Amino acid sequence: MLPENWWDLTVEAPASARGPAGQDVAALRSEIDQLRRALAGRTAIDQAFGMVMVLAPCRSGTARGLLADVSRQCDVTLREVAAALIAAWEGEPLPWPTQQALRRALRRFYAEDRGCDSRLPDEPSGRGRP
Fold first, then answer.
1. Mean pLDDT on 8-20
2. What pTM value is reported for the model?
3. 99: number of CA atoms within 13 Å, CB side?
4. Which residue would you say has higher pLDDT here, 123 or 40?
5. Average pLDDT of the chain?
6. Largest Cα–Cα distance of the chain, in whole Å?
7. Contacts of 130 (CB under 8 A, 6+ apart)
8. Coil, helix or strand for 124?
9. d(Cα 27, Cα 42) in Å, to the nearest integer?
10. Is the pLDDT of residue 26 over 90?
């Protein structure tokens, strides 16, 4: 029978497990912990992708590109953008910079889809004159 704390990653390794094998175990436990954190964040990101796919409507690659664009514009992680979008769906206000970045990304998406100029009225053209 396994001890109750066998699954707990914070339990110290016994003195007999220290050494090369103990270091391998510690490295593996650290990697498992990192993977668990990554998977927890991935759920929110996938949910946000699905929300964009339904609301835009678009394919998964396009949804990822839209959210990655928002992430770059706001200088936050994709996980933070996803969490903000999910919170907005649940009634929380979407942060203003995220709102604006999402609006710009969606306008570019729709403009490209229609073959139109994707600039906002207040954005310079980049062709010499604003």
1. 57
2. 0.60
3. 8
4. 40
5. 79
6. 76
7. 124
8. coil
9. 22
10. no
Query: What is the rounded CA–CA span in Å between residue 126 and residue 128?
Result: 6
**Going by C-beta distance under 8 Å and a sequence separation of 6 or more, which residues neighbour residue 126?**
none
Range of weakest confidence among 1-5, 42-46, 112-116: 1-5
The first and second tokens of residue 88, run together, are 């907005």
Residue 58 CA: distances (Å) to CA of 47, 52, 70, 97, 112: 14, 7, 16, 23, 12
Calculate the alpha carbon distances from 17 to 12, 24, 63, 73 in Å: 10, 10, 47, 48
Q: How far is CA 66 from CA 34, 51, 75, in A?
A: 26, 12, 14
Are 127 and 119 a contacting pair, CB within 8 Å? no
The residue type of 112 is E
- Work out the end-to-end distance of the chain between its first and last CA atoms, rounded to an integer number of angstroms: 73
